[in-house]
Write a structure and sequence with these properties.
The structure holds two protein chains of two kinds.
Chain A lengths: L6 E2 L2 H18 L1 H22 L3 H22 L6 H6 L1 H6 L5 H29 L5 H28 L6 H28 L5 H30 L1
Helix pairs in contact in A: 1-6, 2-3, 2-6, 3-6, 3-7, 3-8, 6-7, 6-9, 7-8, 7-9, 8-9
Chain B lengths: L8 E11 L2 E12 L2 E7 L5 H9 L6 E6 L2 E2 H4 L1 H4 L2 E4 L11 H11 L2 E2 L2 H10 L15 H9 L9 E4 L8 H16 L3 E5 L11 E6 L1
Parallel strand pairs in B: 3-9, 3-10, 6-8, 8-9
Antiparallel strand pairs in B: 1-2, 1-4, 4-5
Helix pairs in contact in B: 4-5
Classes of the chains: A mainly alpha, B alpha/beta.
């Protein structure tokens, strides 16, 4: 029997390490992150190739195309939030940790956003150049994605938790989550469109912010309840 | 591990668990105070795992209650789960992390910090220290099991709930684990476990329940 004693750590440290662990695990499987990232680049690049070189047309569809591609690539990576932890039993351990499941879910969702949402925010302006967007529009595009993609991860975590252990879960996530993504898509693409037509983007961006605040409160709650049902 | 507050009571009263339409067990009542070991016996499918998970708060109970020091575990929530060390059927080992990282993370979830040397000491106890820095993906089933069990040398939770801790272990490892569990119980811990082989514990400290 060991007589060593162990140092207690604070709640914040525990949560920070949950976040860090997800980043570390994902980094050891970086091909997964890369494939979702390249999916975004390739899918968004198909449109200029398919539609031909009409700058006006490309410019008009750019916001919606980029936002739809961001939505789809975010959705592709959703199963990663909980599925592996569910299979190897670490999810049970997370649920019976000494911290509320709600906060642990929040940390895991944050890690998901850093790994799949944030890269899109960074690369989207570059892809936007293919669509003849000007500097102003590119800025709003990046900003709308910066506020909007965390909402996608948060709402997505509910779908990911609900479809755990369900056969054909991948398609089911899409059916569950895509309808819930519609408001984010409308206001995100709307903000960029507004700038293109000379109006202010602040309306769309504020609404994105409001949705982020709302999902920040409710999504981890819903997802943690779904997780507890899934592991039972 | 002298830090245990040796006055805990895990009490189960009139517990009933239901899977689908089938009642697994009902009217289950027992008390376990510090220094006691409970051996849950039963055939496959008799509800041993369900009982253990209900004791952790992972499974919903149909009726009755589980309480820790006279408080319902539902209302204690994470204050209770911080007391429990549960090793289930699934080892809870992340294959992309090394054995040491896995142990450190498990300890983190119970709110304690484990240093690298401490983790290695624990892995030495289960005779697997040479695999300490390998990703657990490359380990065999029995070796992964040992990594999971090494947590028993690292965490100071006063209640251990162990689902089939002796499976996939060789004779020597079973002896080590038996001694360690006895030591923990002697120091005031509470252990609930299942096993298909008759364990070699002192009958003075061991209580039994048979589910059928």
């Amino acid at each position: 029997m060991t007589t060593a004693t162990f140092n207690k750590i604070s709640a914040l440290t525990v949560l920070y390490r949950v976040f860090l662990r997800d980043i570390k695990v994902a980094w050891r499987r970086r091909s997964d992150i890369a494939s979702v990232f390249f999916f975004f680049i390739i899918a968004a690049s198909l449109f200029p190739l398919g539609l031909g070189a009409d700058p006006k047309l490309l410019h008009a569809i750019a916001p919606s195309v980029l936002w739809v591609c961001a939505l789809l690539s975010c959705m592709l990576s959703l199963p990663r939030i909980f599925a592996a932890d569910y299979t190897d039993g670490t999810l049970e351990q997370l649920i019976i940790a000494n911290q509320p499941t709600l906060l642990i879910v929040l940390m895991k969702t944050l890690a998901h956003w850093v790994l799949s949402g944030l890269p899109l925010v960074l690369v989207a302006p570059l892809i936007g150049l293919q669509f003849d967007l000007n500097v102003n529009e590119l800025q709003v595009l990046a900003l709308s994605l910066l506020i909007g993609t965390p909402t996608l991860s948060l709402i997505g975590s509910i779908g990911a938790a609900l479809t755990l252990g369900v056969r054909g879960g991948g398609v089911l996530i899409a059916l569950l989550i895509l309808p819930l993504y519609i408001p984010t898509l409308v206001f995100g693409a709307g903000a960029v469109n507004a700038v293109s037509t000379g109006m202010s983007a602040s309306g769309g961006l504020s609404l994105l912010g409001a949705m982020l605040a709302l999902s920040l409160v409710f999504a981890p709650l819903a997802a943690s309840v779904a997780l507890k049902i899934a592991v039972e | 591990m002298g830090l245990l507050v040796a006055n805990n009571v895990l009490a189960v009263s009139n517990l009933q668990c239901v899977r689908g339409e089938r009642t697994l067990f009902e009217n289950l009542t027992f008390n376990l105070e510090s220094g006691k070991l409970l051996y849950v016996q039963g055939d496959n499918g008799s509800g041993k795992t369900t009982l253990l998970r209900a004791l952790c708060g992972l499974s919903q109970v149909h009726s009755g209650q589980v309480s820790w020091n006279n408080q319902n575990i539902q209302s204690l929530a994470e204050d209770y789960s911080g007391q429990v060390l549960y090793i289930g059927h699934l080892a809870g080992i992340k294959e992309d992390l090394t054995a040491i990282e896995n142990l450190q993370f498990s300890a983190t979830l119970t709110g304690v910090d484990v240093r690298r040397e401490q983790a290695i000491t624990a892995l030495t106890q289960v005779n697997i220290a040479r695999c300490a820095d390998l990703p657990t993906r490359v380990l065999s089933q029995g070796q992964k099991r040992r990594v999971a069990l090494a947590r028993l040398w690292l965490q100071e939770n006063p209640l251990w709930i162990l689902d089939e801790p002796f499976t996939a272990l060789d004779g020597e490892a079973i002896k080590t684990l038996t001694r360690h569990i006895e030591g923990f119980v002697g120091a005031g811990g509470i252990v609930v476990f299942t096993s298909h082989q008759e364990p070699a514990f002192d009958s003075k400290i061991m209580q039994r329940i048979k589910l059928d």
